[in-house]
Structure prediction request, 436 residues.
Amino acid sequence: MLRALGPTRRQALLAGLAGLGTASGRVGAQATLDPDPAPWAVRGVPSHEPLRQLHAGGPSGLLGTGASGSLWALSLKGQAPRRIADGMDTNTPLATGHGRIAARMADGGLWVWEEAGGDGRSRVSPSAGLSVHAGLLVLQLAVLAVVSASARPAHATGHRLARFEPDAAGRWREVARSLDAVLPDARPVQVDLDDRGDGGHIAVLGGPDGSRYDHGVLGDALEATRLLWLERHGLQVLRELSLPPPHVFEDIAPRPVVLRGTPHGTQPGLLTVRSGPEGGQLALVTADPARPQGLRLAALGDTVGGYHRWLAPTTDGRHLAAVHTPHIGGVLHVYQPEGERLARRRLHADVSTHRIGSRETDLAAWLQGLLLLPSQDGRQVRLLNPAANWAELKTVALPGRAILTAAVPDAAALAVLLEDGQVVLVAPAARPSARG
Prediction:
């Protein structure tokens, strides 16, 4: 029987305030939790203009794309922001890793900044043809991005995943491209599904289809029908899973998880959403031991209940959770694998981690052993303790409606982008936030 990997309550209470495990802040180490983490405070982050994108990373620990297309390094100490570049696409998320920042330019070019002493240096590949809204992924030696492979950028099957590497002069060039179509707004992730210990390869949602499921809750009418695991250098298919009609993957970014209780002790997998005539259901995908090139639906949750009903998954890599119907009275559920079934338990109502039509599918954040997620109206952040049976510890009021969040690894804080374009930090008041 598969069980979600996680610490016992005693282990979580004794673990210590460890740093987060990834630059995104979505997967983090468990940490000591005070019975009452009060007081928590909200304070503004200075900016020279309303922001449209927010990302944890970069030279100051927090980045923002302004309404004008300027890229800013935001100060976590209340100092003035520093402009890094101009001409960014305000609709496409930023990416960081390995001392780099990657972004889509407004004209579709690839922009990459690298630490190189002083203020760093940047290079632009103007003819890259990056897809708007899609995620970028920074690897140690490359940047991966979704590119348009068709003269009609909106064409359902006209997008591929591409690998860019710097040439001898430091210019970023495309060196490989997938043969298989991916979602135009796909968010690729690196995951070691075969547990090879080689750093992992690339999971991405593909097989875009506009006719099977006409919900469009994530911003367009295209839904994925395939989950691809691509070799990270040549982008050839290592493993794949294709859903038969009428089902789709109603998602843009599969979430890596680690499970235990398998014949081999632990097993990596991906958390996503399968949708069909009875609505959405949480889906756990793993490598198929019976098929060397196959992925399988290892476990499924019950459907939410009704055509066009959806759920928004969230995970720290250990706990499996989802907000059911986040647009109409969202309710948080926690899941436990039981053979081929994901058994669920209802937890808290009046929460939401997604706005209808948005491609930001998870506004929750896992921070220092806590789950932080917005209220239904987006004007509060609710703090839950998984180690204490998911008890709600505190509700923190925001000065506006949250539309994007980023857990800041170095700050023990949650950065929140509000609807009016301002950014605030939510953090324990007694603990300094971080470097500036």
Notes: Residues 1-86+361-436 form one domain. The two ends are 47 Å apart (CA to CA).
